Amino acid sequence: MLSVAPKGDETAEISLERLHYGKLASGATLSVPATEGYGVTLRSRNLRPADDRLLSPTQLMALRRFEPDLVDPASRRHGAFLARVSPEPNSRRAVFLRARFRPEDGEGGHGRLYQQSAVWSVAAADWRRHPAALLAMAGSELEALPDRAAENEGIRYSADPARYVVRFLDPQDIWLVLEDSLEKTRWAAPVLEFLARGAETGQDAALTFGADDFASEAAFLQAVGLALQFLPPSYPRWREISVVSGLRHAPQGLCLRYLPSLRAATGATSVAA
Amino acid sequence: MTERLSICLIGPKKGGKSSLLATLVDCVAQSAFGYSPRLRPALQPITEAEFYAESVDPKKADLLSVERGDYERLRRDFAEGGLATDTLDTYEYRFRLTVNGEAPPAVVLRGPWLLEIIDSAGEIAVPPDGAEVAILNDVKAKLAKQMLDAEAIVIVLPLVRLEDSGWSGNLARLIDRLALAPEKKLKRLVVVFSQYERLFARLGPSAFTYACDPAVALHALRKSLRAVQWLDRLRALERPNGGGVSVRFTVCSAYGFVKRFQNPNIDPHQPGERRFRRAGLEGARAYNEYWRPFLTAEPFLYAALGLDSAFTFSYAQLDARLEEIA
């Protein structure tokens, strides 16, 4: 178990803007009424309609089209996960995406599939300062659930940003945990080496882990969060790092990825342009 | 000679656009169309590079290549129950069409044909009436340009839900705008009514026999079109000042009718709407023993060739039938 003590009582409040793309749903199983179509169904008030394109799942995943076969079979229920600095030029925000395909006739249904996604957007500086906390929060709380058709439209398009309080972590404690992981786990050395080599060569690459490396997505995000938290402020390719789970596609840059259907880590592979 | 042409698929959401396209190649391969079998059309998915390449001769290596790419994904999504096309982009699929049999020389000499078929979410071109659908402006602009640049448009409408459709007002407005657009390149427009097999759900093994009768299709079309507001708006496209577009009506069924047993191919014992399948097999293979799509090639072959089949009907044919009944 990886655990790092907070650094005293120092805390920071992080504001998370939210955007949902998919279809409105209703009923206990959240089935999609025949009248409902695709659209942005929730946009928190500090985001603008112009952000819809920038925060669309395909834009964030750097894909022409998001398809069901791009989601790892073991991740189909909760969906694929992605964390990165938003890909638009000179972006000052980081994004967390959960995207999946769910049946139109509700959870557990057998009908036609459609895509449902949820995005959190935070200041890139917060992502840089608190990667461990943000990955842990997003991994556990960011869900691709449809909004309800009965919910007031005015509220959905002016939703409050979510606010979280995170504690600063003591760098010494982070190092101690990582040092321990270097001895006892299979992931720590490859991740640190991958990040170091990425900074040295400047080449795009992906490092993929499987179920033998991490028992769950949460364990993967916790481990990667610590490794990123350990990076020095001067790390040159921070903006190019992406953390991916359950997605059979690696964005360009340095991609740390978890595919639960894969057994063991594949080693660093180059990312196709 | 080679003819490149662009075909836009439009229609309300859940109308069957992607299913129509997903079953196109199988329909041609199984000759499950209303054209003469002597026409012997062949259709092959190609890449964007092949579509725009100078030479259109198929490479010899293609003979042994495994089919893959976007179209294969579309077919797989169809086999697995369907996927609602998102509104984040429009999606192009490209094919090489050849006619290897008997056809009028004026048609044959134009081929082979390189087809670009554009699929998009129904919410973009034909949103529900009165709904505020937030579509990305660049996607709307892209589809509008693709429609204006298209040589053919295929409008896909679900036959069984026509009377309570909530999109007819927006479809009528779209047709009006199209008729008034002087810059359009449109030559042919096909209105295809999908889910035709459902009309025959109670006929059991006689279903296919009735469905194969063009007079039955004409009757079903006439009945369905009787109350629609946009029918006369569409006539404007045929007039010289509307562009002199050739308009046709047809029917189709992506699920089709069960091979040998001839009943509509919807298995009542499966959850959701699924075709009959061979137990113990997975994916598309499980369906292939029983699945024969019905006329899903019709709108595309007409759009490309301008050649009528026994199941493509003009206004003149619809009107004649109306007069006959009157």
Residue share in β-strands of chain B: 15-25%
What's the N-to-C terminus distance of chain A? 37 Å
**Fraction of helical residues of chain A:** 25-40%
Number of strands of chain B: 7
Radius of gyration of chain B: 19 Å
Oligomer: heterodimer
Task: List its salient traits.
heterodimer, A: 273 residues, alpha+beta, 10 strands, 28% strand, B: 326 residues, alpha/beta, 7-stranded mixed sheet, 14 helices, globular
Task: Summarize the model shown.
Chain A is an alpha+beta fold and 273 residues long. Chain A has helices at residues 51-54, 57-61, 124-129, 131-141, 153-156, 171-184, 188-201, 217-230, and strands at 6-22, 39-43, 80-85, 93-103, 113-123, 162-169, 205-209, 241-245, 254-258, 267-270. With 326 residues, chain B is of the alpha/beta class.
Describe the overall structure.
The complex is a heterodimer of chains A (273) and B (326). With 273 residues, chain A is of the alpha+beta class. Chain A is 26% helix and 28% strand. The two termini of chain A are 37 Å apart. The mean pLDDT of chain A is 92. With 326 residues, chain B is of the alpha/beta class. A seven-stranded mixed beta sheet of chain B has the order 2-3-4-1-5-6-7, with helices on both faces. In chain B, α8 links the parallel β5 and β6. In chain B, α8 packs parallel to α11 and α10 crosses α14. The termini of chain B are far apart. The mean pLDDT of chain B is 89. At the A-B interface, β5 of A face α4 of B.
